[in-house]
Design a protein that fits this description.
The protein is about 45% helix and about 20% strand. The chain is of the alpha/beta class. Strand 8 (about 275-280) and strand 9 form a beta hairpin. The longest helix is centred in the middle third of the chain and has 33 residues, at about 115-150. The chain is flat, with a radius of gyration of 23 Å. The model has no long low-confidence stretch (mean pLDDT about 95). Bound molecules: guanosine-5'-diphosphate (GDP) and magnesium ion. Magnesium ion binds near residues 13, 29 and 69.
Length: about 350
């Protein structure tokens, strides 16, 4: 899973990125290149399974976070979107739009004043224009191609693209169209920007913590049509806190009134937006958490572990994590009747422990 942090220059992307990374260095991407960090998804359930099985290694699920710079002021005092920037943005599964709301006279704002709504609308509009331009060209091209060939796929694509175009023309992002899954799959190669799940992460300073809830509520009201999640965070304080031990951090977070860390918010929101959850595999060699789509069947989940497991799938042995912790061993789970053999159509649940039987 790839998550992209985008936003105007000096909004706090790199500061947030450093909070998430294990290095916790001070902000810098002076070279203006995209940085990548592979973040381990913390999971108490996996920690507990590791305590039971004492495996050689524990493997957490991971997500890749991209710090994408590029939205800076050009010489004519305007923020320009480049095609390089859009290419970096397209590669992500979900986007976090980092918006500045912290006040600091020592830090420039590329649009000269703090106005989070304006900044959000700026990027949304640019993404919408980019999708519109793409859709227009693509629709023209497909229409011509359909006349020449009888390509069935193109014929199915055309009405979907036209619906997207009509939606964008109403200045609405494609993510709010309620497209069915097959249509989404049909368009997946195009990487339409306003189809990507979007979270708007607003960066506040410590003086505003007490006003945050009411400000976020106002933004939510104004941005209802964006279909975006909206979350507050505190880049600068959280970078300081990320350098502390877990216990100290918990104490300071409480002092500041920060209920959940930026990392936890980003992971939770990403899983929600993308419709993901986790299952586990356990054993003496490794205990591991895997990330899958919520609707995945046992066979699809097996395929995430290994394509051979998909092709040669026979059955899945399944115990839910809660049952396993309640009874303490697979043997006891069998006696209690909570250990099951499931076929390939079984829909895997969050927290299932799976063992795939294959030929
Ligand atoms: N006062 C204050 N400064 C911040 C905050 N977040 C970021 N900064 C500062 O703003 C500057 C730009 O931040 P940076 O993360 O590099 O922004 P980017 O251009 O979006 O990557 C740096 O000097 C940061 O230390 C914040 O919450 N409060
Ligand atoms: Mg940066």
């Amino acid at each position: 899973m790839q998550i992209g942090l985008v936003g105007l220059q000096y909004s706090g992307k790199t500061t947030l990125f450093n909070t998430l990374s294990e290095k916790h260095s001070e902000a810098s991407n002076a070279k203006e290149e995209t940085s990548i960090e592979i973040v381990k998804v913390p999971d108490d359930r996996l920690e507990n399974l590791t305590k039971v099985f004492n495996p050689l290694k524990q493997v957490n699920a991971t997500i890749e976070i991209f710090d994408i710079p590029g939205l800076k002021m050009s010489e004519d005092n305007k923020v320009k979107i480049t095609s390089n920037f859009l290419t970096s943005v397209r590669n992500n599964d979900a986007l976090f739009y980092i918006v500045r709301s912290f006040k600091d006279d020592g830090v420039l704002h590329p649009m000269d004043s703090i106005n989070s709504l304006r900044d959000i609308e700026f990027l949304e509009t640019e993404f919408l224009l980019s999708d519109l331009a793409f859709l227009e060209t693509r629709i023209e091209k497909i229409k011509k191609e359909i006349l020449k060939s009888k390509d069935e796929r193109l014929k199915r694509e055309l009405p979907v693209l036209e619906k997207c175009m009509a939606h964008c023309e109403k200045e609405l992002p494609i993510r709010t169209m309620g497209m069915d899954e097959n249509d989404v799959k049909l368009l997946s190669g195009y990487q339409l920007l306003t189809l990507k799940p979007l979270a708007i992460a607003v960066n506040y300073d410590e003086d505003s913590i007490s006003n945050v809830d009411s400000e976020i509520k106002q933004l939510k009201d104004k941005l209802q049509k964006s279909g975006a999640a909206i979350i507050p965070f505190f880049a600068k304080i959280e970078l300081e806190l990320s350098k502390l031990s877990d216990d100290d951090r918990a104490v300071f977070m409480q002092d500041y009134g920060i209920k959940e860390s930026a990392l936890s918010k980003i992971l939770r929101t990403s899983y929600e937006m993308l419709g993901l959850h986790s299952f586990f595999t356990v054993g003496e060699d490794e205990c591991r958490a895997w990330t899958i789509k919520k609707k995945y069947t046992a066979q699809q989940a097996a395929g995430v572990i290994h394509t051979d497991f998909y092709n040669r799938f026979i059955r899945a042995e399944v115990v839910h994590y809660d049952d396993f912790m309640k009874y303490g061993s697979f043997g006891k789970c069998k006696e209690a009747g909570v250990w099951r053999l499931e076929g390939k159509e079984y829909i895997v649940k969050d927290g299932d422990i799976l063992n795939i039987r294959h030929s």
